[in-house]
Amino acid sequence: MSIAYSSFKPAWHIDRIADIRAGRDAVPTHVQLIISDLCNQNCSFCGYRSELGFSSEQFADDLGNRNPSRFIPSAKCKEILDDCAAMGVRAIQFTGGGEPTVHPDHLEIIGYAQSLGLRTALVTNGIRLKDDPVFRNLDWLRISLDAGTEETYLRIRESRMWPKALKAIELAGSFEKPYFGVGFVVTPDNYREIMPAAKIAKTRGAKYLRLSAVFSKSGAAPYRGIYDSIKNDIRETRGLCGPDFAIVDFFGDRVDDLDEGAPDYSFCGAQQFTLYVAGNQKVYTCCTNAYTALGEIGDLRTQRFADWIKTYRRYDFDAKKCHTCQFHQKNRTINYLLDPAPTHVDFT
Protein backbone atom coordinates (compact mmCIF):
# COMPACT_ATOMS: atom_id res chain seq x y z
CA MET A 1 0.00 0.00 0.00
CA SER A 2 1.19 3.51 -0.77
CA ILE A 3 2.79 5.29 2.18
CA ALA A 4 0.40 8.21 1.49
CA TYR A 5 -2.41 6.13 3.01
CA SER A 6 -2.05 5.06 6.65
CA SER A 7 -4.27 4.74 9.71
CA PHE A 8 -1.22 5.71 11.80
CA LYS A 9 -1.08 9.35 10.65
CA PRO A 10 -2.47 10.65 13.98
CA ALA A 11 0.77 9.51 15.65
CA TRP A 12 2.55 12.30 13.73
CA HIS A 13 0.35 14.86 15.51
CA ILE A 14 1.24 14.07 19.09
CA ASP A 15 0.36 17.65 20.13
CA ARG A 16 -3.27 16.89 19.23
CA ILE A 17 -3.08 13.59 21.09
CA ALA A 18 -1.85 15.50 24.16
CA ASP A 19 -4.83 17.86 23.94
CA ILE A 20 -7.28 14.97 23.76
CA ARG A 21 -5.57 13.22 26.67
CA ALA A 22 -6.09 16.40 28.70
CA GLY A 23 -9.80 16.34 27.87
CA ARG A 24 -9.61 19.15 25.33
CA ASP A 25 -10.94 18.99 21.79
CA ALA A 26 -8.07 19.17 19.32
CA VAL A 27 -7.77 21.62 16.45
CA PRO A 28 -8.39 19.40 13.41
CA THR A 29 -5.42 18.90 11.13
CA HIS A 30 -7.68 18.40 8.13
CA VAL A 31 -11.05 19.81 7.00
CA GLN A 32 -13.11 18.37 4.16
CA LEU A 33 -14.80 21.35 2.48
CA ILE A 34 -17.72 20.54 0.20
CA ILE A 35 -18.16 23.71 -1.84
CA SER A 36 -20.75 22.22 -4.23
CA ASP A 37 -23.63 19.80 -3.77
CA LEU A 38 -24.42 19.94 -7.49
CA CYS A 39 -22.85 17.26 -9.66
CA ASN A 40 -22.45 16.95 -13.42
CA GLN A 41 -22.73 13.15 -13.27
CA ASN A 42 -25.09 10.67 -11.62
CA CYS A 43 -23.23 7.68 -10.20
CA SER A 44 -25.41 4.69 -9.37
CA PHE A 45 -23.56 4.12 -6.09
CA CYS A 46 -23.52 7.75 -4.86
CA GLY A 47 -23.83 7.85 -1.08
CA TYR A 48 -25.57 11.22 -1.26
CA ARG A 49 -28.15 10.72 -4.01
CA SER A 50 -29.07 7.08 -3.52
CA GLU A 51 -31.84 6.31 -1.02
CA LEU A 52 -29.58 3.57 0.33
CA GLY A 53 -26.68 5.95 0.85
CA PHE A 54 -25.70 6.74 4.42
CA SER A 55 -25.42 10.45 3.52
CA SER A 56 -28.74 10.95 1.74
CA GLU A 57 -31.00 11.92 4.67
CA GLN A 58 -30.56 15.71 4.45
CA PHE A 59 -29.07 15.95 0.98
CA ALA A 60 -32.11 16.60 -1.23
CA ASP A 61 -33.47 20.14 -1.44
CA ASP A 62 -36.93 21.22 -0.26
CA LEU A 63 -38.48 20.02 -3.52
CA GLY A 64 -36.96 16.56 -3.18
CA ASN A 65 -34.33 17.13 -5.86
CA ARG A 66 -31.46 14.76 -5.15
CA ASN A 67 -29.01 16.82 -7.21
CA PRO A 68 -29.51 20.22 -5.57
CA SER A 69 -27.99 23.35 -7.08
CA ARG A 70 -26.47 24.29 -3.74
CA PHE A 71 -23.09 25.93 -3.20
CA ILE A 72 -21.26 27.46 -0.26
CA PRO A 73 -21.00 31.16 -1.22
CA SER A 74 -17.47 32.15 -2.16
CA ALA A 75 -17.22 34.75 0.61
CA LYS A 76 -18.27 32.12 3.17
CA CYS A 77 -15.69 29.67 1.79
CA LYS A 78 -12.98 32.28 2.26
CA GLU A 79 -14.20 33.03 5.78
CA ILE A 80 -14.01 29.32 6.67
CA LEU A 81 -10.54 29.08 5.13
CA ASP A 82 -9.38 32.18 7.04
CA ASP A 83 -10.55 30.56 10.28
CA CYS A 84 -8.87 27.27 9.41
CA ALA A 85 -5.54 28.99 8.76
CA ALA A 86 -5.79 31.09 11.94
CA MET A 87 -6.67 28.08 14.13
CA GLY A 88 -3.85 25.89 12.85
CA VAL A 89 -5.70 23.56 10.51
CA ARG A 90 -3.08 22.31 8.07
CA ALA A 91 -4.92 20.80 5.11
CA ILE A 92 -8.14 21.27 3.13
CA GLN A 93 -9.68 18.54 1.00
CA PHE A 94 -12.12 19.74 -1.66
CA THR A 95 -14.48 16.87 -2.36
CA GLY A 96 -18.20 15.93 -2.64
CA GLY A 97 -21.13 16.08 -1.95
CA GLY A 98 -21.30 17.21 -5.48
CA GLU A 99 -18.52 17.88 -7.98
CA PRO A 100 -16.20 20.60 -6.55
CA THR A 101 -15.29 22.01 -9.97
CA VAL A 102 -18.97 22.76 -10.70
CA HIS A 103 -18.75 25.63 -8.21
CA PRO A 104 -18.36 28.74 -10.41
CA ASP A 105 -15.51 30.05 -8.23
CA HIS A 106 -13.71 26.79 -7.51
CA LEU A 107 -10.35 27.97 -8.86
CA GLU A 108 -10.53 31.17 -6.82
CA ILE A 109 -11.48 29.29 -3.65
CA ILE A 110 -8.82 26.59 -3.95
CA GLY A 111 -6.25 29.22 -4.90
CA TYR A 112 -7.22 31.28 -1.85
CA ALA A 113 -6.63 28.28 0.41
CA GLN A 114 -3.19 27.85 -1.15
CA SER A 115 -2.40 31.56 -0.64
CA LEU A 116 -3.06 31.09 3.11
CA GLY A 117 -0.43 28.36 3.26
CA LEU A 118 -2.98 25.57 3.64
CA ARG A 119 -2.16 22.29 1.96
CA THR A 120 -4.84 21.42 -0.60
CA ALA A 121 -6.29 18.29 -2.19
CA LEU A 122 -9.04 17.67 -4.71
CA VAL A 123 -11.28 14.69 -5.45
CA THR A 124 -12.98 15.20 -8.81
CA ASN A 125 -14.45 13.35 -11.78
CA GLY A 126 -11.98 15.35 -13.86
CA ILE A 127 -14.45 16.56 -16.49
CA ARG A 128 -13.65 20.23 -15.81
CA LEU A 129 -9.98 19.77 -15.03
CA LYS A 130 -7.65 22.02 -17.02
CA ASP A 131 -4.03 23.08 -17.05
CA ASP A 132 -4.12 25.76 -14.37
CA PRO A 133 -1.57 26.75 -11.69
CA VAL A 134 -4.18 26.10 -8.97
CA PHE A 135 -4.50 22.45 -9.99
CA ARG A 136 -0.76 22.12 -10.47
CA ASN A 137 -0.19 23.42 -6.93
CA LEU A 138 -2.40 20.82 -5.23
CA ASP A 139 -0.67 18.50 -2.77
CA TRP A 140 -2.69 15.58 -4.05
CA LEU A 141 -5.31 14.98 -6.69
CA ARG A 142 -7.58 12.00 -7.31
CA ILE A 143 -9.82 11.50 -10.32
CA SER A 144 -12.77 9.15 -9.86
CA LEU A 145 -13.07 6.82 -12.85
CA ASP A 146 -14.86 3.70 -11.56
CA ALA A 147 -14.75 1.92 -14.92
CA GLY A 148 -12.37 0.33 -17.36
CA THR A 149 -14.48 0.80 -20.49
CA GLU A 150 -16.60 3.56 -21.98
CA GLU A 151 -19.71 1.35 -21.91
CA THR A 152 -19.49 0.76 -18.16
CA TYR A 153 -18.63 4.41 -17.49
CA LEU A 154 -21.82 5.45 -19.30
CA ARG A 155 -23.91 2.90 -17.44
CA ILE A 156 -22.79 3.57 -13.87
CA ARG A 157 -22.08 7.32 -14.10
CA GLU A 158 -24.77 8.24 -16.65
CA SER A 159 -22.17 10.29 -18.48
CA ARG A 160 -20.83 10.34 -22.02
CA MET A 161 -17.67 12.10 -20.85
CA TRP A 162 -15.39 9.05 -21.00
CA PRO A 163 -13.02 10.69 -23.53
CA LYS A 164 -12.77 13.78 -21.33
CA ALA A 165 -12.12 11.62 -18.28
CA LEU A 166 -9.22 9.90 -20.04
CA LYS A 167 -7.79 13.26 -21.17
CA ALA A 168 -8.09 14.57 -17.62
CA ILE A 169 -6.15 11.58 -16.26
CA GLU A 170 -3.43 12.12 -18.85
CA LEU A 171 -3.29 15.84 -18.01
CA ALA A 172 -3.12 15.21 -14.28
CA GLY A 173 -0.41 12.63 -14.86
CA SER A 174 1.72 15.38 -16.39
CA PHE A 175 1.48 17.61 -13.30
CA GLU A 176 4.71 17.65 -11.32
CA LYS A 177 3.55 18.46 -7.78
CA PRO A 178 0.25 16.74 -6.95
CA TYR A 179 0.45 13.15 -5.79
CA PHE A 180 -2.00 11.93 -8.40
CA GLY A 181 -4.13 8.82 -8.38
CA VAL A 182 -7.28 7.32 -9.87
CA GLY A 183 -10.27 6.23 -7.79
CA PHE A 184 -12.29 3.07 -8.42
CA VAL A 185 -15.30 2.15 -6.28
CA VAL A 186 -15.88 -1.55 -6.89
CA THR A 187 -19.53 -2.41 -7.60
CA PRO A 188 -21.38 -5.43 -9.02
CA ASP A 189 -21.53 -3.49 -12.31
CA ASN A 190 -17.81 -2.79 -12.76
CA TYR A 191 -15.90 -5.39 -10.74
CA ARG A 192 -14.58 -7.13 -13.88
CA GLU A 193 -12.80 -3.95 -14.98
CA ILE A 194 -10.25 -3.44 -12.19
CA MET A 195 -7.35 -4.50 -14.42
CA PRO A 196 -8.36 -2.31 -17.40
CA ALA A 197 -8.80 0.69 -15.07
CA ALA A 198 -5.41 0.08 -13.52
CA LYS A 199 -3.78 -0.02 -16.96
CA ILE A 200 -5.49 3.26 -17.88
CA ALA A 201 -4.21 4.86 -14.68
CA LYS A 202 -0.67 3.56 -14.98
CA THR A 203 -0.13 4.35 -18.65
CA ARG A 204 -1.37 7.92 -18.17
CA GLY A 205 0.94 8.78 -15.31
CA ALA A 206 -1.10 8.11 -12.18
CA LYS A 207 0.84 6.98 -9.13
CA TYR A 208 -1.85 4.59 -7.94
CA LEU A 209 -5.28 3.09 -8.38
CA ARG A 210 -7.34 3.35 -5.19
CA LEU A 211 -9.92 0.59 -4.75
CA SER A 212 -12.86 0.90 -2.38
CA ALA A 213 -16.35 -0.53 -1.86
CA VAL A 214 -19.83 0.96 -1.93
CA PHE A 215 -20.64 2.17 1.57
CA SER A 216 -24.42 1.96 1.88
CA LYS A 217 -27.30 0.63 3.96
CA SER A 218 -27.16 -2.55 1.87
CA GLY A 219 -24.00 -3.41 3.77
CA ALA A 220 -21.83 -6.11 2.23
CA ALA A 221 -24.80 -7.84 0.54
CA PRO A 222 -23.99 -6.58 -2.99
CA TYR A 223 -20.69 -8.48 -2.84
CA ARG A 224 -22.11 -11.85 -1.85
CA GLY A 225 -21.06 -14.37 -4.47
CA ILE A 226 -18.51 -12.12 -6.18
CA TYR A 227 -16.20 -11.20 -3.28
CA ASP A 228 -13.65 -13.95 -3.99
CA SER A 229 -13.60 -13.09 -7.70
CA ILE A 230 -12.95 -9.43 -6.86
CA LYS A 231 -10.11 -10.27 -4.49
CA ASN A 232 -8.58 -12.55 -7.11
CA ASP A 233 -8.74 -9.78 -9.72
CA ILE A 234 -7.10 -7.39 -7.28
CA ARG A 235 -4.28 -9.89 -6.70
CA GLU A 236 -3.73 -10.21 -10.44
CA THR A 237 -3.78 -6.44 -10.87
CA ARG A 238 -0.96 -6.12 -8.36
CA GLY A 239 1.27 -7.44 -11.13
CA LEU A 240 1.21 -3.91 -12.55
CA CYS A 241 2.80 -2.50 -9.40
CA GLY A 242 6.31 -1.09 -9.53
CA PRO A 243 8.41 1.81 -8.26
CA ASP A 244 6.07 4.36 -9.86
CA PHE A 245 2.67 2.69 -9.53
CA ALA A 246 0.74 1.07 -6.69
CA ILE A 247 -2.60 -0.60 -6.06
CA VAL A 248 -4.09 0.93 -2.91
CA ASP A 249 -6.58 -1.70 -1.83
CA PHE A 250 -9.27 -0.56 0.61
CA PHE A 251 -11.90 -2.87 -0.84
CA GLY A 252 -11.57 -5.69 1.68
CA ASP A 253 -11.25 -3.27 4.59
CA ARG A 254 -14.45 -1.45 3.62
CA VAL A 255 -16.38 -4.72 3.26
CA ASP A 256 -15.07 -5.77 6.69
CA ASP A 257 -16.22 -2.40 8.10
CA LEU A 258 -19.70 -2.98 6.67
CA ASP A 259 -19.81 -6.48 8.16
CA GLU A 260 -18.62 -5.21 11.53
CA GLY A 261 -21.34 -2.57 11.76
CA ALA A 262 -21.45 -0.12 14.65
CA PRO A 263 -18.22 0.61 16.54
CA ASP A 264 -17.55 -1.28 19.75
CA TYR A 265 -15.88 1.84 21.18
CA SER A 266 -17.46 5.16 22.20
CA PHE A 267 -14.72 7.68 21.49
CA CYS A 268 -14.49 8.90 17.89
CA GLY A 269 -10.95 10.16 17.56
CA ALA A 270 -11.23 10.57 13.79
CA GLN A 271 -13.38 13.71 14.10
CA GLN A 272 -10.71 15.24 16.32
CA PHE A 273 -8.41 15.22 13.29
CA THR A 274 -10.87 15.66 10.41
CA LEU A 275 -14.13 17.63 10.23
CA TYR A 276 -16.61 17.76 7.34
CA VAL A 277 -18.14 21.09 6.26
CA ALA A 278 -20.96 20.37 3.82
CA GLY A 279 -22.47 22.29 0.93
CA ASN A 280 -25.45 23.20 3.13
CA GLN A 281 -22.95 25.00 5.42
CA LYS A 282 -23.46 22.53 8.24
CA VAL A 283 -20.66 20.69 10.05
CA TYR A 284 -20.75 16.90 10.31
CA THR A 285 -18.62 14.40 12.18
CA CYS A 286 -17.42 12.66 9.02
CA CYS A 287 -18.24 11.82 5.42
CA THR A 288 -20.21 8.70 6.42
CA ASN A 289 -22.47 10.69 8.76
CA ALA A 290 -22.67 13.71 6.45
CA TYR A 291 -26.14 15.12 5.79
CA THR A 292 -27.66 13.13 8.69
CA ALA A 293 -29.20 14.22 11.97
CA LEU A 294 -26.84 11.87 13.80
CA GLY A 295 -23.77 13.43 12.23
CA GLU A 296 -24.86 17.08 12.32
CA ILE A 297 -22.82 18.92 14.94
CA GLY A 298 -22.76 22.53 13.73
CA ASP A 299 -24.34 25.14 11.47
CA LEU A 300 -22.18 27.84 9.90
CA ARG A 301 -24.96 29.76 8.19
CA THR A 302 -25.17 32.21 11.08
CA GLN A 303 -21.75 31.88 12.71
CA ARG A 304 -18.09 31.54 11.89
CA PHE A 305 -16.29 28.22 11.94
CA ALA A 306 -13.86 29.55 14.56
CA ASP A 307 -16.73 30.61 16.86
CA TRP A 308 -18.60 27.33 16.48
CA ILE A 309 -15.62 25.12 17.24
CA LYS A 310 -15.19 26.80 20.63
CA THR A 311 -18.69 25.82 21.69
CA TYR A 312 -19.15 22.22 20.53
CA ARG A 313 -17.57 19.43 22.54
CA ARG A 314 -16.67 16.74 20.00
CA TYR A 315 -15.14 14.77 22.85
CA ASP A 316 -18.62 13.72 24.03
CA PHE A 317 -19.86 12.23 20.73
CA ASP A 318 -20.77 8.54 21.18
CA ALA A 319 -19.46 6.53 18.23
CA LYS A 320 -21.55 3.52 19.24
CA LYS A 321 -24.59 5.34 17.83
CA CYS A 322 -23.16 5.20 14.30
CA HIS A 323 -24.58 2.60 11.86
CA THR A 324 -21.09 1.60 10.81
CA CYS A 325 -17.70 3.22 10.44
CA GLN A 326 -15.04 3.30 7.74
CA PHE A 327 -12.48 4.65 10.19
CA HIS A 328 -12.24 1.71 12.57
CA GLN A 329 -8.50 1.31 12.11
CA LYS A 330 -7.81 5.02 12.59
CA ASN A 331 -10.08 5.24 15.64
CA ARG A 332 -8.48 2.20 17.24
CA THR A 333 -5.03 3.65 16.63
CA ILE A 334 -6.07 6.93 18.27
CA ASN A 335 -7.68 5.14 21.19
CA TYR A 336 -4.49 3.13 21.66
CA LEU A 337 -2.41 6.31 21.68
CA LEU A 338 -4.75 7.73 24.35
CA ASP A 339 -4.51 4.66 26.60
CA PRO A 340 -2.77 5.82 29.81
CA ALA A 341 -1.38 2.35 30.51
CA PRO A 342 -1.23 0.16 27.39
CA THR A 343 -0.35 -3.45 28.11
CA HIS A 344 3.32 -4.43 27.65
CA VAL A 345 4.14 -1.17 25.88
CA ASP A 346 7.87 -1.62 26.47
CA PHE A 347 7.96 -4.87 24.49
CA THR A 348 8.46 -3.00 21.24
Reconstruct the topology from this structure.
Elements: H1 14-21, E1 30-33, H2 74-87, E2 91-94, H3 106-115, E3 119-124, H4 133-136, E4 140-144, H5 150-157, H6 162-174, E5 179-186, H7 194-203, E6 208-213, H8 227-237, E7 246-249, H9 251-260, H10 270-273, E8 274-277, E9 282-284, E10 296-299, H11 305-311, H12 328-338
Parallel strand pairs: 1-2, 1-8, 2-3, 3-4, 4-5, 5-6, 6-7
Antiparallel strand pairs: 8-9, 9-10
Helix pairs in contact: 2-3
How much of the sequence lies in strands comes to 5-15%
Instruction: Name the CATH class.
Output: Alpha Beta
How many strand units?
Answer: 10
The H-and-E topology, N to C, reads as: HEHEHEHEHHEHEHEHHEEEHH
Outline the low-pLDDT stretches.
Answer: none
The residue-averaged pLDDT reads 96
First CA to last CA: what distance? 23 Å
Rough shape?
globular
> Which homologous superfamily in CATH is the superfamily?
Aldolase class I
Largest beta sheet: what is the strand line-up? 7-6-5-4-3-2-1-8-9-10
Number of domains in the coordinates? 1
Q: Report the helical percentage.
A: 25-40%
Quickly give the structural class: alpha/beta
Number of helices: 12
- Give Rg in angstroms: 20 Å
Under CATH, the topology can be stated as TIM Barrel
Key attributes of the depicted protein:
single chain; 348 residues; alpha/beta; TIM Barrel; 10-stranded mixed β-sheet; 32% helix; globular
Q: Can you describe this structure?
A:
The protein has a ten-stranded mixed sheet with strand order 7-6-5-4-3-2-1-8-9-10. Strand 3 (119-124), helix 4 and strand 4 form a beta-alpha-beta unit. The two termini are 23 Å apart. The longest helix has 14 residues, at 74-87. By secondary structure, the chain is an alpha/beta fold. The radius of gyration is 20 Å and the shape is globular. The protein has helices at 14-21, 74-87, 106-115, 133-136, 150-157, 162-174, 194-203, 227-237, 251-260, 270-273, 305-311, 328-338; strands spanning 30-33, 91-94, 119-124, 140-144, 179-186, 208-213, 246-249, 274-277, 282-284, 296-299. Helix content is 32%, strand content 14%. Helix 2 (74-87) runs parallel beside helix 3. It has a single domain (9-338), classed as Aldolase class I (TIM Barrel), CATH 3.20.20.
